[in-house]
Amino acid sequence: MASNILIVEDEPAIAELLAVNLRHAGHCPIVAGSAEDALRLIRDILPDVMLIDWMLPGMSGLALARELRQGARTKSIPIILLTARSEEADTIAGLDAGADDYITKPFSPKELMARIRAVLRRRAPQLTDEPVRAGNLVVDPATRRVTYHANGIEQELKLGPTEFKLLHYMMIHPERVHSRSILLDKVWGDHVFIEERTVDVHIKRLREALTPAGCAEQIETVRGAGYRFTHRQGIPAA
Ligand code: CA
């Protein structure tokens, strides 16, 4: 699946090289020339992964990673630090600051892509293409199909693209309450221009789409808090 990847790198040649390789791998790269620019961009769009150069003018990459880890909205963005330093003490400092991984310059694009895939698998399983199961229900991001079994026969459910993403996100984070603003950030990817009641509209459509499989009630409303996907079946929505 295409990921929004924010590159924070002040050397234009390196930023461009990274962007070209990421685009080639099917991702959507965005470039920020400084930590300050990156923080401004993140206010509008939450990236799926960040590649952060250690040595930046102004705020350092390390300080940026630390700040992102402290923000409720940004704390789970996967971060890979790009560093020219390979001393052990430095890499430990990077990981302590909250980076998921680091890569030492110069690196091969192939190695970088492998690191990106690895952090996505660990921190954001919704961005990998592996099918997710809950009871009878299977959501397969690779084929964009939602299926269930009835009397031993596989049936397919028809979901719109937003309902698909919503269900997928909630299924890989089950039994947890997701606020409308979190769902907007995670599913729509942009929390600024969409009203929160949009989420309610798509939840309603999702429940309707899940009704033939008997799973509509697994999308629970948690009053005053948001929505939850539960593995328990047959429990009425609160
Ligand atoms: Ca630099």
Structure description:
There is one protein chain. The protein contains eight helices and eleven strands. It has 238 residues and is of the alpha/beta class. The protein folds into two domains: 4-127, Rossmann fold; 132-229, Orthogonal Bundle (Arc Repressor Mutant, subunit A). Helix 4 (88-96) links the parallel strand 4 (79-83) and strand 5. The longest helix is centred in the middle third of the chain and has 15 residues, at 109-123. The mean pLDDT is 87. It binds calcium ion (CA). Residues 10-11, 53, 55-56 line the site of calcium ion.
Order of SSEs: EHEHEHEHEHEEEEHHHEE
Number of strands: 11
Task: Write the CATH architecture name of the largest domain.
Answer: 3-Layer(aba) Sandwich
How many domains? 2
Name of the CATH homologous superfamily of the largest domain? Response regulator
Q: Main sheet: which strands, in order across?
A: 2-1-3-4-5
Amino-to-carboxy terminus distance:
34 Å
Query: What's the alpha carbon Rg, rounded to whole Å?
Result: 20 Å
Shape: elongated
Individual helix count: 8
CATH class of the largest domain: Alpha Beta
Hey, roughly how much beta strand do the residues contain? 15-25%
Low-confidence stretches: none
Structural class category? alpha/beta
Hetero compounds: calcium ion
At the third CATH level, what is the topology name of the largest domain? Answer: Rossmann fold
Largest sheet entry: 5 strands, parallel
Average residue-wise pLDDT: 87
Proportion in helices: 25-40%
